């Protein structure tokens, strides 16, 4: 529609409004016509090629996505139709272990496909060693509930407490020394000082007859220490030198001694093994010692002999029952003076340089703690690595 430029202004506005109105009608009718054509085309296609309509997959409900959570909230058991298989941390690798001449274990990891497709749930608690942030907490799969307490066991995947709670070390070939300081838990101030002043490389042994052991254990583990449980055993000079009611005794039968051992074990968690306190008579009696060694082997614990009894049979029986075992080479504080303890530490270093490794033991006396902390501070500069005792015991699994 043409517009007359010479027409009055009001007339031109009326014509423009009429033109817009006509244009809107045309567009509306055209849209309806196109829609009708599309609908007729779709109907014709459906008639010629009939295909059943299907519903698109809906998003899973909370119960379908997480049957365990639904079961716990509703109280009714819910079974997942296809649960994801839990996988071990090393299920995607071939692991080959080689023991070197210097006693170090070298592991070679070769990738391989996992047993199942899809995502894998990996139980972090079952890996070797322990995340330092979780070191004060036990791996639940390595515990059993007994009347005597929560006792260590080998996990379903073969992981031993000795491996889980061992302090990591560099793996380098060199002179390695383990120092074990025992008697923790008997004196509050002595225990607190030992945990505070000794470097984390020192292994701490907690006396089964001590007090507040679980609290002290957690503090020691948070600071990075490997720990042992120190179990009293009957000495040759008993009853003059009486280790107390918790002691394992030659006169008791196997059932009594195992019950007492388990009561001691239930005092704390997170230890790599057991160390004797006294025990010359008990360690030299094969009938009394054999059930104890069998039990330690079944539980995946190491045994450290403090080396004070020349008649001890712990090494022989440990080898018979595949118990990881070690002997202390030097008692560092048989005489409580700083100069003597430092000389004993130098003796320990000479043994380690000759044989590659050495183990020293001491008690948590003030003189011992101060001297050991001072010596370790300088030992690193001489190429000595102080490691947890689990790194130096003879392990039948790797020998």
From TrEMBL:
The keyword Membrane applies. Keywords: Membrane, Transmembrane, Transmembrane helix. Coiled coil: none annotated. The keyword Iron does not apply. Pfam families: Polysacc_deac_2. Residues 67-131 are annotated as: Disordered. One of its GO terms (biological process) is carbohydrate metabolic process. Residues 71-82 have a biased composition (Polar residues). PANTHER family: DIVERGENT POLYSACCHARIDE DEACETYLASE SUPERFAMILY, UNCHARACTERIZED YIBQ-RELATED. This is Divergent polysaccharide deacetylase family protein.
């Amino acid at each position: 529609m043409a517009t007359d430029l010479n027409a009055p202004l009001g007339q031109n506005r009326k014509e423009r409004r009429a033109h817009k109105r006509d244009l809107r009608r045309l567009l509306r009718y055209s849209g309806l016509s196109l829609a009708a054509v599309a609908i007729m085309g779709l109907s014709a296609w459906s008639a010629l090629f009939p295909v059943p309509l299907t519903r698109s997959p809906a998003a899973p409900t909370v119960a379908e996505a997480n049957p365990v959570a639904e079961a716990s909230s509703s109280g009714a058991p819910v079974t997942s139709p296809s649960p994801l298989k839990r996988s071990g941390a090393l299920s995607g690798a071939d692991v080959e272990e080689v023991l070197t001449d210097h006693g170090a274990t070298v592991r070679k990891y070769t990738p391989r496909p996992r047993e199942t497709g899809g995502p894998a749930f990996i139980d972090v608690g079952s890996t070797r060693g322990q995340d330092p942030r979780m070191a004060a907490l036990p791996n639940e799969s390595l515990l059993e509930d007994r009347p005597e307490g929560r006792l260590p066991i080998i996990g379903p995947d073969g992981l031993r407490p000795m491996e889980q709670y061992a302090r990591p070390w560099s793996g380098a070939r060199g002179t390695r020394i383990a120092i074990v300081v025992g008697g923790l838990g008997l004196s509050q101030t002595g225990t607190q000082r030992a945990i505070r002043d000794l470097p984390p490389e020192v292994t701490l042994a907690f006396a089964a007859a001590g007090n507040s052991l679980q609290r002290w254990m957690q503090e020691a583990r948070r600071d990075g220490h490997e720990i042992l449980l120190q179990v009293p055993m009957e000495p040759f000079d008993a009853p003059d030198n009486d280790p107390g009611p918790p002691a394992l005794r030659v006169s008791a039968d196997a059932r009594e001694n195992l019950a007492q051992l388990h009561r001691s074990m239930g005092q704390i968690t997170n230890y790599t093994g057991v160390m004797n306190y006294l025990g010359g008579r008990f360690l030299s009696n094969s009938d009394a010692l054999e059930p104890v060694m069998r039990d330690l082997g079944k539980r995946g614990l190491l045994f450290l002999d403090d080396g004070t009894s020349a008649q001890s049979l712990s090494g022989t029986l440990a080898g018979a029952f595949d118990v990881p075992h070690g002997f202390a080479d030097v008692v560092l504080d048989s005489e409580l003076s700083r100069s003597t303890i430092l000389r004993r530490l130098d003796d320990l270093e000479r043994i380690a340089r000759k044989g590659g490794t050495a183990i020293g033991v001491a008690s948590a006396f003030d003189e011992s703690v101060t001297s050991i902390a001072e010596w370790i501070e300088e030992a690193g500069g001489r190429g000595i690595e102080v490691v947890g005792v689990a790194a130096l015991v003879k392990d039948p699994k790797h020998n």
